């Protein structure tokens, strides 16, 4: 497995604007990783690969979900949720990435999950706050991410859930469970 080959192949999966987003996610993730006990090579690899399948056709993603026995419940929700879990399978099969932490960072970068590792949190937040993102409340999350990643996660999950409710869209239950988990974590931290 060679990073240059992975970079080239990833670039070929997406339009230039999404590749530029990927590079900003990598840079943001590397900055968030400062002072955290994470392997920077893993941060870079997970960031590069996180959107590998983002522009694959829905039929191809659907076939991969079935073929790899991924949760079929995903098919009942927004298509945007499919590329993370499929991306993790592709990273394992095409790029021989066996590191579960990297695979989980790719797998859960859109939905989150309770008990995320530092690497998973970094990729989730970097995707959310990279400098190309512009929406109300983003600067608050950027500030939080510098001092307390759990608080930043909670705020970004709250924002996403509120956004989906306002758009009258279904919320994937794992994201609700994740939000409740991080609310508890933040409340415990505030009490201690
Ligand atoms: N828990 C969820 N349930 C349903 N849809 C969701 C959920 N989380 C995110 N989404 C949808 O996915 C989109 C963002 O997915 P993401 O992987 O971050 O893509 P992008 O990088 O293009 O923002 C949101 O705009 C929303 O429409």
From TrEMBL:
InterPro entries: Diverse_Catalytic_Enzymes, HD/PDEase_dom, HD_domain, YqeK. Keywords: Hydrolase, Iron, Metal-binding, Nucleotide-binding. It catalyses: P(1),P(4)-bis(5'-adenosyl) tetraphosphate + H2O = 2 ADP + 2 H(+). Residues 18-132 form the HD domain. Its EC number is 3.6.1.41. CDD domains: HDc. This is bis(5'-nucleosyl)-tetraphosphatase (symmetrical). SUPFAM superfamilies: HD-domain/PDEase-like (SSF109604). PANTHER family: BIS(5'-NUCLEOSYL)-TETRAPHOSPHATASE, SYMMETRICAL, SLR1885 PROTEIN. It holds the Pfam family HD. PROSITE patterns: HD. The keyword Chloroplast does not apply. One of its GO terms (molecular function) is bis(5'-nucleosyl)-tetraphosphatase (symmetrical) activity. The keyword 4Fe-4S does not apply.
